[in-house]
Amino acid sequence: MTATATTTRTLTVADLAAVTESLQAETASVVEELLSSGSQKATTVTAMGTVTAVALNISSSVIEVEVEESPAAVILPQEALPVQGNPDAERILTVVPLTGEATKTTLGEGSKAKFGGRSVELAVDAVDVSVFEVLGGQSSELSIEDAPSPIFLRLSGRNPEPDWRCAYLDGEVWSREGVRLASAAEISALYGDSVNTSGVWCATTHLSIFGVLLDTLLDCTNLNVLSQEGLEQVFRNTTWWTLLPAVSLWLLTAALLFLVLVGVAQDAKMRRAGFWRDEYFLTEVAPVSVTTEMSRAMSSTSRQMSRAMSWMTAGNAEKSDEDVDSAVTRQRIRTLRPNLRQQLQETLQCQNTLRAAARLHGLHGSTIQSHIWGQTGWVQGSLAVQRSPLLKKLVLEMEVTLPSMYLAVHSSCWARCWSTCLGMHPFYELFQWDIHVSAAKRAKVTMDSFLGALAFAAIFFSVDGSAVASRRPSECPVAQGSVLWYMLASSVAVLLNSLPCGLVRSLAHRSFVQAIANHRRQLRMRLFWDAAFWAVGFCLSILHLLIIVAFLANLGEEHEWKWMTSFAFVVLRKLFVVPLLACIISLGPELLCSACMASPRTAPKSFGLDMDLLDEPEAEAGKELKQKTPWDEKVDELAGRGITVRQLLDFYSLLRSDEVMPGFDPVESTTHDVVRQAIIPMSLSIHPCRAFQVVLRGLSQKRKVIDLHAASIYCTVLRDAVPKPWKVGVCGPVELGEPFFVEDVVAEEALQLRIQDEGTDEGAKMLTLSSRVFWNGHQTELEVGKDSGLFLSLSISLWRGSNISDLEEEGITTVDVPDEHYGQGKAMLADRSKVDVEDGAKDGRSQHAQHAQLGPADSCGLAACVACMDQVPASVGDPQACISQVELFGCSSAPVDNDEQSSTGQVLGFSYATTVNNAEPQMAIRMVTHSWGNKFTYLLSAIFSDALETETYDGVADLLRHGKLDHLAQKLRNAGKLDVPYWVCAFSVNQHAGICATPPPTDSTGYPIIPCRCSRAKHFSGDLSEMNKFDDMMAYLKGYLRAKSIQELSHIRLQQVVAMEVNFSLLTRVWCVAELVEADNLHLTQTIKLHSGASQRSCLDKIMDLDVAEAQASFPADKELVLSKIEDIPAFNNRLQNLLLHRLEGFLGSRAVGAANCLDDVILAVLQVMM
């Protein structure tokens, strides 16, 4: 009988490190007790559990130890003990089931642990097994590693679960190295039936603290199919791949691969058609991303608002009702944006229209929305449209097709459903071209979407039971159906599907980059990113297939029908459920917004769709049959009175001269002052101007004067010693032999050539040629300076301009170069017939600096056609080409008004635009709305800031006030905007046919105004009046520019520029208000230019108190005329307020606005995601 000693000891332990340290001390203490008692077995109950120590019998081949009142047991073969050590030493085995209070939270059943970087759970209480060697009364722990025979340990009396794993504690983490789950059959085969094999047995080759781990993640999902055992089942199970689930997977994969091949064919078709090429993504203009544009706009608005709010705060610091005013302001600003219902309605209407347009044109909706049209209207300045001629042509077609698609898709619920189903179908959209993501890549993303959804379904399959043998959903720590469960499922879905597909889609997306010299290198980088897309996409597909295949290999046959149901649901959801859901959402406005649904003939204003274009063919046919009335002829004439940015700069440079307006003050002078003191006097007669092509042939010297290799030649135009660099088409040194242009040269100006030796500090040598010398063209060699010995050979040819006889009519004579200049003046252009200076052909110059060259045979008498087209110059000897261009765009000579005919010697007077354009039509592309009470400097600043595309005009105004015209001209030249024509009533209306004879005594600065003595008849109303046709003129310009752009495949459209004053008094002028509303009716792009010092409160007050009945006009008849066209004045006021508030939303925005609408934006985004 074996003697046993039993004691009890208590200990409190805080953490795992303390547990292991205390455990070693406890076992060592029990070993000492066993030695001191002289018994074969000792048992001590501690805070950690019952410690059992047994003296090993060396003569026995197998040592079997069971712990009292515990299922723990150890089977230790003799050969497992190390042979090293002192043979006289005594060996003691200790077994400790860690069931005490001190180890309950760290090593007890249900405690959490770390294994392989993730959280696991102990299924049973851990057990510690150690062997001690005792010699001379001293004990030490004996290390056993890599034992030749396995040591078996029983940790629990419960039968093992399939997902239990034996492990040992290695420091502070668990490891499975050298430890495995042992079966009852294995133990019985080794030791016979005498051993109780029930319970959980682990086999190990070393001794430590042992436990059974339970992976909680495997209980909640089927991820255990990716374990070693699960993957091995793919090869062990030889029948799964021929069953229905596997066959369905193979067929689906084959169909998706075929879809990719269809995408490849579609991409090849797009390249063959020339619609888009990879080279188009390389652009000379640095592309700006949407994020950068938004950041820049928000930064500009923030700075603007900071200045405006600081001004307002300073002005209202003494107000006691500041809080009340702020509340009123916030209430007013709330009207800036539509409510959630309207936003949702417009979003859905836009999406419906985009899908219908995509189906009609075969162009993907995302491409249309990014580069052509979207919810905020037409996209301006798209690089894609500029690069692709076919896309540019398609934009022009969509001006008509988009309104028709809007009507078609919203006139019938069935049409909307059908369009949405096709547009949302993943297969149908592959037949629509997308310039940023190829069809093959979209097919690959669709393939990953299908396989990802199936992989997700495989992981969470059989939520109410176990379809995979090793899964126990009942043991999942997260209750299925709870919020945490859905969060877990959603997280896995995102990780498996959304994030990888998003990564793949980002790799698939192609965008514009700035071209470098090595284009081939950039194209190779494109190929590299394409290869990266296909590599990542291939790996993602392999991962999805691996999950599905491993799941099917472990799927029980009784659950196959359930899996096929899930399989069918995934496929049907992608093919049918998502399109049908989109149909239901597209019909949402009829259910949610039935009271505010727009009529089929009306689209939201923000869309910018011109429904009138649908009736355009009938209207044009009616116009052809209808003979033009005097009213129509005057409208055509007004439309041809644009004035370019170059001409406006030139006019401003003349204002300070004594001959023009000596009292001009850039800070105080108003537009009315300039009209009375400068525009009216300067427009009494035509000022002939011409454009010349200049070529410097060579530079030579008879004796050494300068280093010709280091010489630089600069060119400018002078008038009264004042340089006008904006008239020269080149900036910086002029290259010999390279032609350049000088524009709008008049008889009073001269061409100055400055030759500078860059290698010395000597002064420059000047050569100045009066325009009279080269008015008809010139080719000669001239000496630079008197007796300098430096000669310049040059050729000046007429490129575009007035009739040769114009100067003779003005009493100005051309001069030949004297013989001593070693060159003979040579006229380059023959006379042409005189053109009517007031009613010439109706056409205009191009926005760009491409000009039509005239030749000696051009005797057609149509001066208007010289710059009609944005085309290659007409043939010198082919006047018919010029005539055909005029006929194409309706250029025809209008009859002269009888009132305008006068006897010789009488002065008629013209519009200023007519005088500087040689009486030729100049069709504007910008319509400027402004008030004559505004500072004239601010008016021009607003125009120039629009050309430069800046948010405010205070910076440009500073340049004008300080006379830095050369700096401003350089900015405009770099932007390519010097030739952009604007329609400005002060310059474009013939003031001599109206107000010139009845000025006030003085202007706003106190200078007297001299009445005009012209003989032009005055017309304030009727067919010949120029003050009552603004709305018709805007409509005519819009139609004209549209017809021209369709013919030339350009994207130029009429736009409105509103030059707002600091005090916003423009909103109180009746004609300005009328122009704002008319431009909105015509769906023109409207740009409001603001001075940065403008007051937010002043702007709000002007808008909210706006009443067209109270607006001011210079003549009561004007006000009566405008009011007579308004049927409902209160409704008109509300509409105008809404228009201005939305146009000024960026200026009036504030943090309060963003906070107030944050919730609306979030809800709207959620609904869009659901789509």
Brief characterization of the structure:
The chain is α+β, with helices and mostly antiparallel strands and about 1150 residues long. Helices cover about 40% and strands about 15% of the residues.
Structural features, described:
The radius of gyration is 45 Å and the shape is elongated. The strands form 7 sheets. Strands 1, 2, 3, 6, 7, 8, 9, 10, 12, 13 and 16 form an 11-stranded mixed β-sheet that branches. Strands 4-5-11-15-14 form a 5-stranded antiparallel β-sheet. It folds into 5 domains: 4-214, Chondroitinase Ac, Chain A, domain 3, CATH 2.60.220; 240-281 and 438-584; 340-434 and 604-612, no CATH class; 629-680 and 907-1158, no CATH class; 687-836, Immunoglobulin-like. 38% of the residues are buried. 42% of the residues lie in helices and 15% in strands. The chain is built from 38 helices and 33 strands. The protein is an alpha+beta fold. The two termini are 81 Å apart.
